[in-house]
Amino acid sequence: MNIEEIEGEIRQKHLHDERFAIFWKLHLKPVIDYSKDLAVKYNANQEIVWLSAILHDIARLDGLEPHDEVGAEKAYEMLIQKGFKEDMAQRVKETILTHRCKKHKPEALEQKILATADALSHFKPPFYFWFKSQVPLEEKFSLGLLKLERDYRDKIFFDEERESVKIEYDLLRKWFSFLGESK
Prior knowledge:
about 180 residues, single chain, 2 domains
């Protein structure tokens, strides 16, 4: 199986379920696109970055948490089962494991690219209409502001990419701050 086929399989799994179709459009597809562009731009291993982007949130399909740790294992097993070499599957696993920049921090270039792409996808305003859709609005705003700040400061590893979303960051920050203050 090749990478295009894996992307198609994951895409179909998301589009098959209405709850995940919007997640594909607002998050996964942008992460994949950003990752592929950044891998070329920064001369990273394109296959590792692409596979990691496709599979980085695979545990979310089953509602499993912590999705970075569970998803890393699940992606590794999937790649081995589909005939990928152990070294490739291991590097994808390690890249997925670090994409949240929480318990496991990115060190390799491919890891930093996935974390950055994941964060960049959050700067498209429709993401925040979907984000935490099940929580009360006021809580959504404070959580959104925390996520926005963490993404901008801790997950974007390239100055040029951080600068590319500076306008969106400033606008979303003002929006969240204003909405959080108007009680």
